[in-house]
């Protein structure tokens, strides 16, 4: 895993988007199309803001949604479908955007998404990590072994507190307890991983991810086993690294 530290999160976003865009353009040049994974949350604001400005033929790109709450409507302020529609899909109009629907039978939805992603090998995954070191909504201890592409997961207390702290929900009790998440193994199948992690509140999770053991207790640590993963940090998020 290569680490890139930027002065500000705006520069972090630009650097991460530039690298990810290169992988998308190379895939289009090689195969005439590209498949990507797009994440949400406050950590992705700057990266997505820059990615939509990149010179890419988005009509040749199929994008997959990383995770979504169960039981949150797509008009809810915290909905990741709403987030991605407004910040990405409506701006670039990709060939196809495959959303995670949290308002249908979750187990059937996982099967549907699994069948679709199996036909679309991922060229680049844009992800972040949580304050509890989660990757997607795979909270610790994460399942490193499941072959399922998407899972129904239970969000732990730290994860739910983060969602409230970022302003998506008024109280912790308003944060759903369940979500649909792409699995660790599915994320790791991506040819490249671009992980954007700004802000001081992520510094401890970054330190564990980079310097701790590779273990389900630190889900994001698994990225150190990937041959083409980049971790983009700002000075704040990198501040605890030795």
Helix-strand makeup class: alpha/beta
Quaternary state reads: single chain
Helix content: 25-40%
Average pLDDT figure = 96
Mind telling me which CATH architecture this is? 3-Layer(aba) Sandwich
Q: If helices are DSSP runs of H or I spanning 4 or more residues, what is the number of helices? A: 7
Stated plainly, the CATH topology is called Rossmann fold
The biggest sheet amounts to: 7 strands, parallel
Report the CATH C-level class: Alpha Beta
Apparent shape:
globular
The radius of gyration over CA amounts to 16 Å
Describe this structure in words.
- It is a single chain.
- With 242 residues, the chain is of the alpha/beta class.
- The protein has a single domain (2-234), classed as Rossmann fold (3-Layer(aba) Sandwich).
- It contains 7 helices and 10 strands.
- The strands form 2 sheets. Strands 1-10-9-6-2-3-5 form a 7-stranded parallel sheet, with helices on one face.
- Helix 1 (9-31) packs across helix 2 (45-51).
């Amino acid at each position: 895993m290569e680490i890139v530290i930027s002065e500000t999160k705006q520069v972090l976003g630009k650097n991460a988007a530039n690298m990810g865009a290169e992988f998308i353009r190379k895939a289009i040049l090689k195969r005439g199309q590209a498949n990507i994974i797009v994440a949400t949350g406050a950590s992705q604001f700057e990266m997505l803001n820059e990615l939509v400005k990149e010179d890419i033929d988005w009509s040749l790109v199929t994008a997959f949604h990383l995770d979504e709450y169960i039981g949150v409507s797509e008009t809810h302020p915290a909905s990741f479908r709403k987030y991605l529609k407004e910040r990405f899909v409506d701006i670039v109009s990709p060939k196809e955007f495959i959303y995670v629907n949290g308002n249908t039978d979750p187990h059937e939805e996982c099967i549907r998404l699994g069948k679709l992603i199996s036909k679309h090998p991922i060229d680049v995954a844009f992800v972040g990590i949580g304050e509890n070191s989660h990757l997607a909504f795979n909270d610790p201890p994460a399942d490193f072994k499941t072959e399922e592409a998407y899972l129904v997961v239970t969000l732990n207390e730290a994860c739910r507190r983060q969602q409230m702290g970022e302003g998506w929900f008024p109280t912790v009790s308003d944060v759903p307890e369940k979500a649909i998440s792409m699995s660790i193994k599915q994320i790791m199948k991506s040819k490249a991983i671009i992980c954007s992690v700004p802000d001081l509140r992520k510094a401890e999770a970054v330190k564990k991810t980079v310097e701790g053991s590779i273990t389900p207790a630190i889900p994001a640590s698994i990225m150190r086993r990937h041959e083409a993963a980049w971790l983009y940090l700002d000075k704040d998020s990198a501040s605890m690294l030795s």
